[in-house]
Amino acid sequence: MTSSPPASGTAAPHRPADLPDAPTGRPAPSRTLCVGVLAVQGDVREHINTIESLGGRAVPVRRPAELAALDGLIIPGGESTTMDRLTRIFGLAEPLRDLIGSGLPVYGSCAGMIMLSDVIADPSVDQLGQPQQSLGGLDMVVRRNAFGRQRESFETDLAFTGLAGHTPVRAVFIRAPWVEKVGDGVQVLAEVPAGGTPAAGPLEGTTGPRRGVPPGDTDAGAEPVARIVAVRSGNLLATSFHPEITGERRVHELFIRMIRGEA
Ligand SMILES: NC(=O)CC[C@H](N)C(=O)O
Questions:
Q1: What is the CATH number of the domain that holds 10?
Q2: Is the whole model's pTM more than 0.90, yes or no?
Q3: How many CB atoms are closer than 10 A to CB 162?
Q4: Relative to the CA of 79, which ligand 1 atom is closest?
């Protein structure tokens, strides 16, 4: 296991730039939110489209100067090793740690969840022997590719705490992590139940896991256990899966309510 440097905690509390009518530091309900999507790598466009379909403004973020005006940030799915490398090369890693530490609302999906985790159980190691780093913020241990590789990608329906309505979330898992351990302040919002879910099936073009059963559990020959796939702690939200590619908008809607201080 490896630990990320903790968010410095020295930054001033997060407060978006243009908030004359919001003395609490929250965007006024009538103001259009500006949500950044970290755009060094990954499925940026899908998140931008989802936020815009909910009436928010979404902008790709590649430079530290672009962070100042944001009400919230999304770290997309993609490849966490590449994202780690590029955020450091672009000088984004430290400003992002500071913003996370100061309370900026951040939502990470899949690779984004890995970036927000304090500890990566199985970090990739580069040619110099350096383990990949996360930004951290969520007091938890995450395991990369835990449900299997690309050909074992799958989709399923999940119960998800705190969303509008009672219908389950259609969740797509692509080389997805699971959360192995959470600290006291981390709330579990969704799990893949022990033994999988009856509705689980392989994604088109993949073999998928054996009918709805997370492969990591059965391959180990142990009793299947439920696997944590969505969490929240304060202003940080993370999912192992990709709501942005199924037309499921309620996770982003929850994130917008978090930004507005309504959830
Ligand atoms: N769909 C994804 O974001 C996959 C995450 C990838 N396995 C990683 O380690 O970053």
A1: 3.40.50.880
A2: no
A3: 16
A4: 10
